[in-house]
């Protein structure tokens, strides 16, 4: 009886922690999806597939995690074996989705990942279009000013292609030219957001993995 009570207490504790982490992961994903400035950058860079695929997978994973928590709590209360089986299967699927989502997010959302070369290629497209495409010129100006970067790789891109260095490349207070290129600086700007999301998603996966020995 004591052993069964301890098992129930452990499962309730793990379920409670999982629910909190799943809500946090869901909240961060929705914030990355709907925060105005970030959403604007994603649409203008046409980076929906690159930057939102990982969060979408993590939304599915965290939603499933929350559902399995409810099932797990109810299964513990009524001591139903079929509900326990459904709980374990749901947890396994949520773990698989969580690992896939955080792996994709890390691979396409931090500095020195696949994101940086993709951004450099995309910024060069905007860079070459800026003389005859107002939309490309506008988004490049906005990002250079907001992120404090200059050129796709660095400020020398303007000299290399005989383009006038825009005011957005200079610090408004000091007049100094921004040292970093937009591909690297944008990736660095992204890293804290995706890093926190991936870290919490990984912790959720670890907690869900802890169900296995307990349920076993």
From TrEMBL:
GO terms for cellular component: plasma membrane. It is a multi-pass membrane protein. This is Tetraspanin. Keywords: Membrane, Transmembrane, Transmembrane helix. Its main location: membrane. It is found in: Membrane. The keyword Secreted does not apply. The keyword Transmembrane applies. It comes from Daphnia pulex. It comes from the Eukaryota. InterPro entries: Tetraspanin/Peripherin, Tetraspanin_EC2_sf. The chain crosses the membrane at residues 12-34, 55-77, 83-106. It holds the Pfam family Tetraspanin. Gene3D superfamilies: Tetraspanin.
